[in-house]
Amino acid sequence: MIDDSTIRPFRIDIPQTDIDDLHDRLARTRWPHELPGVGWSRGVPLTYLQGLAEYWRTGYDWREHEAALNAFPQFTTTIDGANVHFLHVQSPESNAMPLVLTHGWPGSIVEFMQVIGPLTDPAAHGGDPADAFHLVVPSIPGFGFSGPTREIGWNVRRIARAWAELMRRLGYERYGAQGGDWGAAISRALGVADRDHVVGVHLNFLPVFPSGDPAELENLTEVERTRLATLERFATDLSGYVSIQSTRPQTLAYGLTDSPVGQLAWIVEKFKEWTDSRDAPEDAVDRDQMLTNVMLYWLTATARTSAEIYKEDATTWRKTEVSATPTGIALFAREFGQPVRSLAERENTNIVHWSEFDRGGHFAAMEEPDLLVGDMRAFFRLLR
Predict the structure, then answer these.
(1) Which of 48, 310, 353, 375 is catalytic?
(2) Given the residues 181, 288, 313, 375, the one annotated as active site
(3) How confident is the model at residue 36 (pLDDT cuts 50, 70, 90)?
């Protein structure tokens, strides 16, 4: 397929029939039984999900959040045969640094709604105008309004090359990258693939597993051993979704694409397990923002194509290229992907910024937007 390099304005406009269909499906949900007293230990509790689904049906206002998303300039373009949807929010500061923000799974561009204002217009949010960014916030191919993808092969490195082309089309010769979850992997790969133009990469997720050499574990602190134990728990108890999405995404997609409650449960479970929450995800993230994120999966029917990234990178996600790009790391307390620094430096030879926070989790831009914004500003000040 020949690329059409045209950048086209885009506006979200979901037909009312799609909203009515969602409400009808929610009202007709066929609920499973559950064992008594198991809480969240076997998945999302029935009573919790019933309450959230009822709020989704009767209390949540999609049009309000659609309008909030449409307040940001949005565009689409075709890169390497795929449709790429993105926000492009330019700062009022002429010397702002271009920055590409990349989400992960089960996230979306919705993750960044609370940080866009402070990053693009710090003066209006009590900050220093010198810290301003021009933001490019793409939806990963296969996710949301960049979906569905029509061919195999959209792995992390290919996405990184697409981001490099996107920034080139927008005229940005010197820019930074930031991300968590898959967005972290894509941002790292972008720093490698477009090293001549990427000035630095800021990550709030960097799981690094031991190589198998006992010597590298000899002098770890108790905190570092706890971080490795958390990674091990993820690998043994919290990664069932990885096994499914990296092997049979098509089979999974039938249930998630047909049942809004199925899609809701599949995503909301991660907002409980991966956040700095107590009893429910809403302890850590805004309920409406979480549902808006779910809506981008449901309305675009991208359960399968968003899962395909796990299939594409199933054999390579632990085999990353060594990066010499200036790198900043922000560690949030409940993030399961916290690295041990000595191990992180094995694959990232130019870590110039390292921060640790006593709160927050995997969805840092939603949970602790002020902390994330402050850390990004601090890191990129070193590189402006």
Answers:
(1) 310
(2) 181
(3) very high
